[in-house]
Automatic annotation (TrEMBL):
Organism (species): Streptomyces cuspidosporus
Lineage: Bacteria, Bacillati, Actinomycetota, Actinomycetes, Kitasatosporales
Membership in a protein family: Belongs to the bacterial ribosomal protein bL31 family. Type B subfamily.
Name by which UniProt lists this protein: Large ribosomal subunit protein bL31B
Pfam families attached to this UniProt entry: Ribosomal_L31 (PF01197)
Assembly and binders: Part of the 50S ribosomal subunit.
NCBIfam families: L31, PRK01678.1
UniProt cross-references to InterPro entries, sorted A to Z: Ribosomal_bL28/bL31-like_sf (IPR034704), Ribosomal_bL31 (IPR002150), Ribosomal_bL31_B (IPR027493), Ribosomal_bL31_sf (IPR042105)
Length: 86
């Protein structure tokens, strides 16, 4: 690899704002905020909106939408504007 063209990889903490879950991993992202980790060292921190700790798919709280029922409810409320296709 050529030297001087690749970003430097360093330990970074990713913190989920919704659940408080934190993950220490390596990244090239640049941030000015820092946080003290469990080992007593200070690492840069990146706040994320959602992670596997708070995403409904991973937590098991996801809902299945009934799209057919929603279409029927829309048609009942507003009527059918286009003629039926044959």
């Amino acid at each position: 690899m050529r030297s001087g063209i690749h970003p430097t990889s360093r330990p970074v903490v990713f913190r989920d704002r919704a659940s408080g879950f934190q993950l220490l991993t390596r990244s090239t992202i640049d941030t000015r905020q820092t946080v003290e980790w469990e080992d007593g060292a200070t690492y840069p921190v990146v706040d994320v909106e959602i992670s596997s700790a708070s995403h409904p798919f991973y937590t098991g709280t996801s809902r299945v939408l009934d799209t057919a029922g929603r279409v029927e409810r829309f048609e009942r409320r507003y009527g059918r504007t286009a003629p039926p296709r044959h």
